[in-house]
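HUMAN: Spend a minute on the protein record below and explain its fold to me.
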Amino acid sequence: MTRRIDAYSLRLFVSTARAGSIVRGAELEHIAPSALSRRITDLEHAFGTALFVRSPRGIALTDAGRLVLARGERIDEDLQSLVREVQLEGGEMRGTVRLYANMSAVIGFLPERLRAFMAAHPGVEVSLHEEDTRDVIRACLDDRADVGIGVETPVPAGLDAWRFALDPLQVVLPVDHALAPRKTLGFAELLAHPLIGIHRGGALDRALHERAQALQQRFTPAVWVSSFDAVCRMVEAGLGIAVVPQSAAAAYAGSPRFARRPLAETWAQRELHLYALRKTPRPRPVAALLEALRG
């Protein structure tokens, strides 16, 4: 029976009871009097009792009608409040987006883009976590991350990916190093010099080990550190040379004490991609951040 009691008919009843007339109620609700009368009759059938006493002089509420009016006014107010809240939610985005990104994305690309995004959407908080690409992918698949950024990699099933930025690898050397006069450098010739390693077991470390093995050589850094600024500090001190993303080289090796040279290998043209678990539809803050980062 309650399925026959719809919110619109209840609103028509409330307006008519307040107006004291079916004709005036129909005018207020912009509906034909005959259609409004049918709606109220259907409502009375649903409740199983009369709500109005009808006479040539007009209408009057029955005891049941007064009860329905009191409760119906509260229901109508609640519905109108719900509509306003939904419309407000549709106007201004609010919420938290969980963003996982690798080190080079955090250093070289995200600060300015996040500042612009958060200025445009002050109601959205971005919870940023720095992780290796492998952990970024896993966080997206486990739904611990709404958006991920990492080195381009084959996309597992259920994950969407978009190009984010080109971040080629460069060689960072002391300005007085024997290789500094060269315009470009090949990976094989770097292996003959002391090297500084970054984040043992990370994506870049694994890639450099694989490339050295392909050359039937070994990638054996003299020093290991866990951050790009520490890498560049070791290079500055003359402990070795390093292969780092262009974003990190620009951030930490931009002074005249350093030489930066392109790594002349096709695999050095490294791309960063955006990753997100496939969802339809995506939460609005997540969709907005993806759109901003893709732009």
